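Q: Please design a sequence for this.
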């Protein structure tokens, strides 16, 4: 009786090597791509769409004053001070050259690949453009806070000067530290209110590290209402809703907060980072703003095109949009810096 047999190894190649070499590697049906970073700034700026041209001019109109008329005064006599000279200026935003994310395909890859890659990769290209837009707009918020105003001769009760910066010991390691941060947020809100900024539509951007540190600080002042079971901000255990508002600001979290010395690259006709005055973003703690602070000029929204290229036996796939962004209201932005 034969004690040992040698079964045919149907997975072995040329009778040598691993006996599993030829076995098909099963496709799991799920593609593991990187998690997409959520973009937030769309809808939080003033968007103007144009059908032609390379720029858009936003007129800036100052305020008029009023005065009681006295018996017999001639209102047309400039010496009597009735005639208003309303200060005028303008803000111009230019379109940048197309912002593009491009890649090529190889027909061979499409033939042998066992999962559909084209739509997934096209989505990634669109996401790359959205991330770039978010990064540029957040940088512009800081630049706006330190930009000189367009109007310089306004009535005494009208402040259109830059929102400026506030230095604070930006830390949430303890209740006392978090209280200092809340006070700085209150100072930022007061500064916007003093410039007649509409307070029902103001926002604050924070990075995830600071946001969740604020949420979990011992006896966090951010959730004092929740600990008393009476607050509007949601349940303490819910990270989505635990901190919605502070000092009137609608708070949101962004992974695109500027944090490097020079920031994202320049546009072709607009400045977003490197080369701009005060373009050091290393100490930014929070960005406080009204949506009218930044203007976004749009000529063509996201467009995805696929072109056949026989010289590479494949396709060229491009995703691009044509936009430009600029500062409209410096008085509507305040930067909180880490002291």
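A: Design:
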């Amino acid at each position: 009786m034969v004690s040992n047999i040698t079964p045919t190894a149907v997975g072995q190649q040329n009778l040598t090597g691993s006996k599993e070499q030829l076995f098909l590697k099963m496709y799991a049906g799920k593609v593991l791509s990187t998690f997409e970073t959520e973009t937030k700034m769309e809808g939080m700026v003033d968007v103007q769409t144009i059908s032609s041209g390379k720029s858009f001019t936003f007129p800036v109109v100052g305020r008029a004053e009023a005065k009681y008329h006295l018996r017999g005064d001639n209102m047309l006599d400039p010496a009597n001070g009735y005639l208003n000279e309303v200060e005028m200026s303008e803000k111009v935003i230019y379109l940048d050259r197309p912002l593009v994310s491009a890649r090529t395909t190889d027909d061979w890859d499409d033939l042998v690949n066992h999962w559909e890659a084209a739509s997934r990769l096209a989505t990634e290209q669109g996401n790359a453009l959205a991330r770039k837009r978010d990064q540029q707009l957040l940088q512009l918020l800081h630049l706006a806070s330190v930009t000189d105003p367009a109007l310089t001769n306004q009535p005494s009760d009208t402040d259109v000067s830059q929102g400026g910066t506030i230095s604070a010991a930006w830390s949430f390691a303890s209740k006392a530290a978090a209280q200092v941060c809340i006070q700085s947020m209150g100072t930022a809100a007061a500064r916007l209110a003093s410039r007649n900024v509409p307070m029902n539509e103001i926002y604050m951007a924070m990075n995830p590290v600071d946001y969740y540190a604020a949420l979990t600080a011992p006896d966090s002042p951010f959730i004092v209402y929740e600990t008393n079971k009476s607050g509007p901000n949601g349940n303490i255990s819910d990270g989505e809703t635990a901190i919605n508002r502070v000092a009137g600001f609608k708070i949101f979290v962004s992974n695109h907060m500027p944090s490097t010395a020079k920031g994202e690259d320049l546009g072709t006709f607009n400045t977003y980072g490197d080369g701009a005055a005060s373009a050091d973003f290393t100490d930014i703690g929070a960005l406080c703003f009204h949506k009218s602070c930044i203007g976004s000029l749009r000529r063509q929204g996201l467009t995805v095109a696929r072109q056949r290229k026989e010289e590479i036996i494949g396709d060229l796939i491009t995703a691009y949009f044509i936009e430009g962004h600029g500062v409209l209201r410096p008085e509507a932005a305040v930067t909180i810096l880490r002291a």
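Q: Thanks. Anything notable?
A: The mean pLDDT is 82. The CA atoms of residues 49 and 298 lie 5 Å apart.
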